[in-house]
Amino acid sequence: MPAHPEVLTSKPEWQTLKEHRQRLDGVLMKDLFNQDPGRAKRYFIEGAGLSLDFSKNRITDDVLDALLALASSCNLE
């Protein structure tokens, strides 16, 4: 069963995500693309008739790892 919001925000994985958000606050998208030429391809997925492009969001490999860790801590694997 998914965690309730109040439980979710008390998890250490949530705090890690908050730290990543603060670190990326004010970072320009053009800078993320310049620093990572493979960004558009790596953060684009297709499946089940859907195309999802995460590259135009402030996501990094560290953020993705933190999101997956949070999902795992909530038994959402």
From TrEMBL:
It comes from the Bacteria. One of its GO terms (biological process) is glycolytic process. GO terms for molecular function: carbohydrate derivative binding; glucose-6-phosphate isomerase activity. Keywords: Isomerase. This is Glucose-6-phosphate isomerase.
